[in-house]
């Protein structure tokens, strides 16, 4: 079945490439724009992204995209190509081929991806495939959940005298294993944000317990920035029970580090201090 779909898409690409070369389909230029939809809240999409959706002839959107955003593409053909654990509407190869086929058939294809398309979004692969097949390409960055979700929950990924850097790591690699970077990150004082890691939570906790103290703060935020968001804040020793008790599951981000324990302090500080002064203090390391 997969081979049949692939052959059909490849034939479509070849046909419309031929028509384009013969000036029979010159009314619209085959084009791909990869657009970051942000972490979930519809108001966190960029103006540039909205303009791209309004100009789209086809929108191929992912599972983590808020479907309310599709209202901006009222004149486009809408196709769901999302992938979730154990349930793929299309394989990545099929999505690549569909992009090219749709672009030659209809014109401007917008590939709408959750968060930022270049943060574990495989945007670079789709851009490369489209370019290799003669499409014009453009990119509209989005707010990554790795930064937007903690920020809206009062978690500062970097904080003077607490965390000098942050890591963003995939919890599950392409071969379905825990990333080795988690082991390296657990040995540092950096804030660590793990995406796609809920099914590896026990392994992540075990890795950290081998290198850090049990009272290290950890937060997990499901459906971050959306109206159905759920959040648990605990420590390495308590987080698994909290997740079970409050039924937190994917899609969620995991944030590990001392900054997680400073949520209320951060919120109070921002309310009390002048932001311009804070900017100066941060950058002068005062």
The arrangement of helices and strands along the chain is HEHEEEEHEHEHEHEHEEHEHH
Stretches where pLDDT is under 50 for at least 5 consecutive residues are 268-286
Q: Terminal Cα separation, in Å?
A: 63 Å
Q: What portion of the residues fall into strands of 2 or more residues?
A: 15-25%
Major sheet description: 5 strands, parallel
Number of helices: 10
Layout of strands and helices, then pairs:
Elements: H1 2-21, E1 31-36, H2 47-54, E2 58-61, E3 77-80, E4 83-84, E5 87-88, H3 92-106, E6 108-113, H4 123-132, E7 136-140, H5 145-152, E8 166-170, H6 180-185, E9 191-195, H7 201-211, E10 217-222, E11 230-235, H8 239-246, E12 252-256, H9 263-272, H10 275-284
Parallel strand pairs: 1-6, 1-7, 2-3, 2-6, 8-9
Antiparallel strand pairs: 4-5, 9-12, 10-11, 10-12
Please tell me about this protein's structure.
It contains ten helices and twelve strands. Helices cover 37% and strands 20% of the residues. α3 packs across α4. A hairpin with a 7-residue loop joins β10 and β11. The radius of gyration is 22 Å and the shape is elongated. The C terminus is likely disordered. The chain is α/β, with parallel strands linked by helices and 286 residues long. The strands form three sheets. The chain has a five-stranded parallel β-sheet, sandwiched between helices.
Provide a concise account of the structure shown.
Helix content is about 35%, strand content about 20%. With about 290 residues, the protein is an alpha/beta fold.
